[in-house]
Request: fold
Amino acid sequence: MKCLDAMYICTTPLQVMSAVSLAMTRKERADLYIDPQFEDAISLAQRIREERIFENVVTLEDLESIRRVRYAKGKKERYLAILSLYRNIRKAAEEILLPDTSYRRMYATHNVFVANILMLYISRYRIRTKICYYDDGEGSYDNRDIFRISAADRVGRRIALGSRKLRSCSLYYMYSPELFRAMHPENTIPVHALPNFSKSPEVRAKIEKIFAITEDKGIEEPVIILDALKELVLSPEDDARIVRLYDRLKEEFGEDKVIVKRHPRDSRIYENPIRTYPFPTLPFEVTCLASDTSQMSLITLLSTATIMPKLLLDEEPQVILLYHLFKRLEGNDEDRDRFFELTRETWRDPDKIRIPDSEEELDEIIREIKERIR
Reply:
């Protein structure tokens, strides 16, 4: 059996970036497994193969064990599919993994379904593979459930493992260990730094090549509205209010100086739209690599993408978060406030993160931006 240093599991472009960075930094002999849940995943996998960073690049397409759960109709059918998967955990894992291959480490993020299957398999059969979590963006820092086990998951583990314990995570790799420790003071697992791309030109160049990043994918406008899926968090009245606010921003800054980066899953049609970024499905972290984010003003209701320039590039755009001005249907603003307050403490210029509490405060911020970009 062939034994490699590591395997990486990815389901998003950001996870792919982090996997490439870790594998190149650690100079590991590793395999990359991609669960192709995002656009262009298959062609991205092929470009990664051509760069020879990993021994193998595997795309997990049409796996029976995963498909039965993912496409289950209704809660009961999904529950029965998961129950069957847990009872046949070896079969599910062997369907995922390359044959006759073992790994010293498995790198994944804490909430990836494929990784959870493999963690149960590793624990059930006492396989000598260490579990490592790596950075998955904002959720890795402010997800309050990151260390909690749901009742359903507890039952599933009991089915798969019997009396054995789940193999726990050995260490974290985070772009900002300082922020992670501040958000999770109860954590006792070692946290290592995942180098951002400003400190590794070779890694950055490789990622830009893999993601086919070109100048035309950058944003030159100084004001960027990072849109969110507003219908999920706002009442219809406030949804209309924020659209009117966007219209006002276009008038205040000028049509040539403001652009909307729409959420990749937003398919709505707007009657009077601001100019939009022409690559709507491209994740913002990819856009950042083609842009000078340090000169941007990012305005958003509550987009998690606002911290990516700092995490990935150590660049600090101005960030204006509007969630205090709107009554949200879900979420806890106290948790958000704590996260952004601790985020401020990691910035060289904490005053660049602003959360206006009134229309008057927002008016003053708009005046300041207009003066700067004039």
Remarks:
- The chain has a mean pLDDT of 88.
- Residues 236-253 form the longest helix (18 residues).
